[in-house]
Fold each of these.
Amino acid sequence: MKLQQQWEHHISVDCKRESLNMLRQFTKEVLSEWQITDEQQYLMMLALDEVCANLIIHAHSCNSDDRLDITISRAADGILFEVKDTKPDSFNLTHYEVPSVHQILCEKKRNGIGLLLVKKIMDEIVVEQAEGAKICRMKKKLAC
């Protein structure tokens, strides 16, 4: 899939695990279009993938009748990611208390590592209700 140079890209995916591969490919193509380093691309892809995987697996129970709408756009100072979930009672990342690395290692907690990474990778995360949906907006600032 060859993308045209533009400031905003959209994709809508079914809430099934197989959609994550399509989302990764889409994200990689969008970010490489904007000449972002491989390391930055990988980190942003990881964060977006983790948020979407959590919604698909935990909030939607891999129900392929449900969908997520994802928008990736370029701002003057970074990259914006928007995940729109039409299930308004789904997980709110901003209310999640991330376990410390100590808790994860010492208490052998298996949950929370991915969301810990999301909060470390992204510079801003906002979740709001709008248009009958829950929208998670994340921003990664880039050095000019």
Amino acid sequence: MHARSLLFAGKRLTQTGIYKDVQKTYQGADSTIVLNLTINKAYSLSKDTTLMSDQSIQFGMQEITKAGTYTEQFYTQAGCDSIVTLNVKMIVTGLKENDSDRITVYPINAQNEIHVEFQGEALLIVTDILGRVVLQTKAHKKHTFQLDQLPEGIYIVFVKQNEIEHKLFEIRR
């Protein structure tokens, strides 16, 4: 059943069980109605996911293209309500025109260090190409990462400000 309760014989039933009601027929005879009620468990699930700014996903009847919290109602195989909440974080790939004058990363072909300059406070994250965080710090206006302890390879710099992540550049060392 889809509801969490059922009105039977003037009573609201909220638990699984066998319920009886005796009614009189139009001829005056007793008639017993037996209800074998099963109330299945309703589920409430929450899932976190991350999208790149050029991605979208289908969630129930919604196409998700922005960060936020989304809720959908689904039904289990037993027909019970299940509420699923999807928490979506967005990673902005590349720079928007108005970001390009606010965030700078250099040099692209780095040897021992890279410099990141930006407005205000930010969480700076450097990952390898598999997405593993190799360097991370909070900074104000600018920061220099020392790369000499990292093996040669391609690294990605993220600047996170006000819950928005900007994927800036691929850095080659």
Amino acid sequence: MPKAKADAVVPDRPFRFLPTRLILWLALLSVIPAFDAAAADLRVVVDALRSVKGDVRFALYDRAEAFPDDDGKLAGQTVAVIGNQVEARFAGLNPGDYAVAVFHDENGNGEFDQGLFGIPLEGYGFSNGARAFLGPPDFAEAKVRLGTKGAAITILIDY
């Protein structure tokens, strides 16, 4: 009968932790969709445009100190005017308070044109029906609450 070698080494099992690692990965992957489920969409419809010229520019804000400064916006969109109504959708937002400022850039120059003493020459509007009086409204006046199911708002343009 042959003798077994005394110095034979049994290889270590490199995959012995595989089931534990697999379970941890599966647990992590099952949590990721829960974060995506919390993201919501804000649909913004701008109504009562006086012409089909130019674009409507949308600015979304999530901080009072940034509203309505163009540099402080969370997101922005430009939508070409085809009829008397346009729509923008801000997707993947976390639930919370947001404000929207829009203007109808009829001449397409990308600027909110103002005349003497800062009087607007183009139509504008804010979420929540907030009105401008000697300047833009406060964030608190324009804010809308976005829940987990999203929201749809309509902004009427003032000319």
